[in-house]
Write a structure and sequence with these properties.
Length: about 375
């Protein structure tokens, strides 16, 4: 059998995976220089460039966010990747879901994961999410222009893509559901003739000796979206409020500056998100909830950003409890809660230690997912 389910992980890696649920964290491989970013944004640019230059935009705005235990790391270093994995194991995160980029055969930010695959280290389990969207400049607060276009050349490209993915799917660390490698598609609606692609990949998986594939489509808060309409196995909903100058009078200074500068900054209280980020119903299809420890993309977007203000481990705990309760009725393999994210620092959604909260968010995860955790 290729890959590892939760019971197998415990035996293979001597980890304590006797948990209430399986927490899998999205992982951004942006923290190392690449030639493309050197050209677009200047020599040596990484996500840390945005993080370090961030400034508070209103009174009480927590910026910049500064890493603690791991520092401003470089993902080219195996020591960094091992330290991240050690933290994940210590606090009960089952594995990382690496963002994977495939632009008609062109790969970007692939080096960290390919090093993990090639070296066999760290031993932490992993899976992949195909971030199938174009890259543009607006996330940098610049006029919108396409940097890399997401293209779909046709069936031969999908075969080549699967052949590339098979190297990961066949690795013993790859996370599975019922023995099938789990694979996320970020924008399934954008994938032309998706049913044909899914059918092709499933056939190629069986031909390669896999038990199949467990394919998860990410829904971006589209009412009525059903993974079964695309022949997918499950859904994960990623829900964010609208960015449209939503600033309460409480933040008078930000409201005034935003109106004066004709910008679209929006500010929500993180505590408002408790009943917003997750579904309020139980869908008929298999659904994996997604929890966000925070959101603040102003290091990227500046005054056009979206801020969840005053996030804290205590408030995050409420959302994680809600998410856990939503999957307790699932089968053992399907008790999955997705964490967005492990390290998306420039969007503010990370659980790695920082100078303000230390390991607070990680401690919440460990407290709740192990059997001794007390769900209230």
């Amino acid at each position: 059998m290729n890959g590892f389910s939760a019971p197998m992980l415990k035996k293979r890696f001597k980890m304590d995976f006797d948990k209430k649920v399986r927490v899998i964290a999205f992982y951004l491989p942006q923290f190392h220089p690449i030639p493309e970013n050197d050209i677009w944004w200047g020599k040596g640019f990484t996500e840390w460039t945005n993080v370090a230059k961030a400034k508070p935009l209103f009174k009480g705005h927590y910026q910049p966010k500064i890493p603690a235990d791991l520092g401003f790391y470089d993902l080219r270093l195996p020591e960094t990747r091992q330290a991240q994995a050690d933290l994940a194991v210590e606090y009960g995160v089952e594995g990382f879901c690496y963002y994977h980029y495939w632009f008609g055969g062109k790969r970007i930010l692939e080096k960290p994961f390919e090093e993990v695959l090639k070296s066999g280290k760290p031993k932490l389990p992993f899976c992949l999410c195909w971030a199938n969207h174009s890259w543009n400049s607006i996330w940098q607060g610049c006029p919108d222009r396409i940097l890399v276009e997401q293209i779909y050349p046709g069936i031969e490209d999908h075969k080549a893509h699967f052949s590339y993915l098979l190297n990961a799917f066949s690795d013993e660390r790859y996370i599975t559901v019922d023995g099938k490698p789990i694979f996320f598609i970020y924008k399934p609606n954008d994938l032309p003739d998706i049913k044909r692609v899914v059918d092709l990949w499933r056939k190629l998986a069986h031909k390669a000796g896999l038990k199949g594939l467990h394919l998860v489509g990410i829904s971006h808060f589209q009412p009525g979206w059903d993974p079964r309409d695309y022949d997918l196995d499950a859904c994960m909903m990623q829900k964010l409020p609208i960015i449209k100058k939503r600033i309460s009078k409480k933040y008078f200074d930000a409201k005034f500056k935003s109106l004066f500068n004709k910008m679209d900054l929006s500010i929500y209280e993180y505590k408002e998100m408790e009943n917003f980020l997750l579904r309020d119903n139980a869908p008929e299809f298999l659904d994996y909830p997604c929890v966000l420890p925070n959101w603040d993309n102003t290091p990227r977007a500046g005054w056009n950003g979206l801020v969840f203000h005053e996030s804290s481990p205590l408030l995050f705990k409420k959302i994680l409890i809600n998410a856990i309760n939503k999957v307790l009725h699932h089968s053992e393999e399907n008790k999955i809660v997705m964490l967005k994210a492990w390290n998306e620092w420039a969007e503010g959604n990370y659980v790695e230690p920082d100078l303000k909260f230390g390991r607070g968010y990680l401690e919440v995860i460990r407290e709740l997912i192990f059997p001794k955790g007390n769900l209230k």
